[in-house]
Specification:
Layout: E1 20-26, E2 31-40, E3 53-57, E4 70-74, H1 78-82, E5 87-99, E6 103-110, E7 119-126, E8 132-137, E9 145-146, E10 148-150, E11 161-166, E12 171-176, E13 198-201, H2 221-226, E14 231-237, E15 261-264, E16 267-268, H3 277-290, E17 296-302, H4 310-322, E18 329-330, H5 338-341, E19 345-350, E20 364-365, E21 376-377, E22 383-386, H6 397-414, E23 432-436, H7 449-466, E24 486-489, H8 499-506
Parallel strand pairs: 1-12, 13-14, 13-24, 14-17, 17-19, 18-19, 19-20, 22-23, 23-24
Antiparallel strand pairs: 1-6, 2-5, 2-7, 3-4, 7-8, 8-10, 9-11, 11-12, 14-15, 15-16, 21-22
Helix pairs in contact: 6-7, 7-8
Length: about 525
């Protein structure tokens, strides 16, 4: 560990040393950093091809030390050609930089120098199998980096990892790569949903052309599901409703099913035509049929200008939407295990029930939802909520960030009793921790959903990479004992950026420590 590795300084004027790299291993795999290569963007005099790379070996022992170069042509790869004319300036084999699962390591490796457009290629070894994995930082875009596997003469299946590099902090976080369309498939089915780290979206279907203060999402719901979102926040406008005299043993007439328009507050979610709950449910049913290991939590709330009441909405849902598709729904008021919920929609109810709808079929009760709170509990006690949305100015966004981080800490503490097996029969359940990152102010354009998300989402990525589950976050937890709960986001997937979702899903790796 007695070395440093960085770009040589000019003899005339030595710049201040760059920060050294910190690496956090948020996987269950013990990793060791074995090789560091530095890539600079200047044309190399020994290049034999327009995009050829030259690898140079270096015996650098300090940032200011001398270098002996052994140059030899290195064949170009497709990814290297995309980088343009660059050359590997130095290579250093490393020992002693071991990073245990859910631990952090301060390395002596200097971060890439942004003023010289440098990159580092880091190669890690899985000490349990000998397989190696490499990543170049910074990546080609502001998105997570997929590590490339280099098996060492073994046909065993290699693992998959992604990395998020935070250049402003010289920090690299490594996650187990989940197949986001089916990430629940690897989890213990006996776990209650409240023990999981679940990404969600706020006003989930609001990706259409609409008023700027109404639109909260960049991509449609199906794209959200395929990229790991499992909690959907949906608002509907309900018409008045009089149930038929006898709804037992009869199938509802499809043409007579009352439509429930999707809204955000008093406004339709699209200016190009009304969007209906029935079409959204068809998307959810199709996704679950294709991915039976998954479950979706659907939070439904009545808003809009319809003349129906909460009671009307509960009857419409029960008679016309849930009962005809009973096998596709979980409507018990108890938080289910993953086994009970797989392949089904779990109803989270933010409306009151009509007397004719039994509470046992009314879903998880969130009907008494505290308004605009930094920390609150719904009337049933089944849900713990951070839903502070009253950000009046951009200067208040940091306050919202703090509330969101505190919500993550509460979720980590609340899931200390990790699994359903540890909760005595009839004892208190672990509540659903629902943590909204969203906020908005209709009258202030700087506080519309997209303007707030562009500040909050990167802050939460940084926190989940660097701070969550660490003793320094004030929770006193061991790093491997942290869940995030349900984290409800705005504007994820914009320009293909799913890093925030990957961070949330990635924290489920700590559950595998107990399997």
């Amino acid at each position: 560990m007695g070395f440093a590795f960085s770009r040589p300084a000019a003899a005339a004027a030595l710049p201040a040393p760059l920060p050294t790299l910190t690496i956090r291993n948020l996987t269950i795999t013990p990793l060791e950093l074995k090789l560091v290569e530095r890539l600079e963007s200047h044309p190399h005099p020994h290049s034999h091809k327009p995009n050829g790379l030259v690898k140079t070996k270096s015996h650098a022992t300090s940032r200011r030390g001398s270098h002996e170069h052994d140059t030899s042509p290195e064949p170009s790869t497709e990814s290297q050609q995309e980088e343009g004319e660059r050359s590997w300036r130095a290579r250093h084999d490393i020992t002693g930089v071991a990073i245990k699962p859910f631990s952090e390591c301060h390395t002596p490796v200097y971060k890439p120098d942004p003023t010289h457009h440098e990159k580092l290629r880091l190669t890690f070894e899985d000490t349990s199998t000998g397989h190696r994995y490499s990543a170049e930082i910074p990546g080609p875009a502001r998105r997570s980096i997929v590590l490339k596997a280099h098996p060492k003469g073994s046909e065993d299946e290699t693992k998959e990892f992604t990395a998020i590099y935070l250049p402003q902090h010289a920090y690299l976080a490594l996650f187990s790569s989940a197949h986001l369309e089916s990430w629940m498939s690897t989890l213990d089915p006996s776990l209650p949903l409240s023990a999981l780290s679940i990404p969600g979206t706020h006003n989930s279907p609001t990706c259409h052309v609409a008023l700027p203060s109404v639109r909260c999402q960049a991509v449609p719901v199906l794209d959200q599901l395929n990229n790991g979102v499992r909690f959907l926040d949906v608002r509907v406008s309900s018409p008045a409703f009089t149930p038929p005299p006898d709804t037992t043993n009869t199938s509802p007439n499809p043409s007579a099913i009352p439509e429930l328009a999707l809204v955000h507050s008093a406004f339709p979610i699209s200016l190009t035509g009304t969007k209906q709950l029935s079409a959204l449910l068809a998307t959810l049913y199709a996704f679950l049929a294709a991915h039976p290991t998954e479950t979706l939590l659907l939070s439904l709330k009545r808003e809009g200008t319809g003349r129906g009441t909460d009671q009307h909405l509960s009857q419409i849902l029960q008679h016309h939407y849930i009962a005809p598709n009973a096998a596709r729904w979980y409507t018990s008021p108890q938080i289910p295990t993953l086994a009970e919920a797989r392949g089904r929609i779990v109803l989270v109810r933010r409306f009151l029930l009509a007397p004719s709808v039994p509470a046992e079929q009314g879903g998880i009760d969130g009907s008494v939802w505290p308004d605009n709170v930094a920390d609150g509990t719904c009337g049933s006690g089944t849900i713990r909520i951070q839903d502070y949305y009253g950000v009046g100015s951009s200067a208040e966004i940091q306050r919202k960030v703090r509330f969101a981080q505190e919500g993550l800490e509460r979720a980590a503490q609340g899931v200390g009793a990790r699994t359903a097996r540890e909760v005595p029969e009839g004892g208190p359940q672990i509540p659903l921790f629902i943590n909204f990152l969203s906020a908005s102010n209709f009258f202030n354009a700087s506080c519309w959903p997209d303007r707030i998300a562009v500040k909050i989402n990167p802050s939460m990525i940084e926190y989940m990479c660097m701070g969550h589950g660490s003793p320094r976050d004030g929770s006193g937890l061991d790093i491997g004992d942290a869940a995030t709960g349900i984290v409800v986001t705005d504007w994820v997937g914009n320009h293909g950026d799913w890093d925030l979702i990957r961070c949330i899903v990635g924290w489920n790796a700590r559950l595998q420590l107990q399997q």
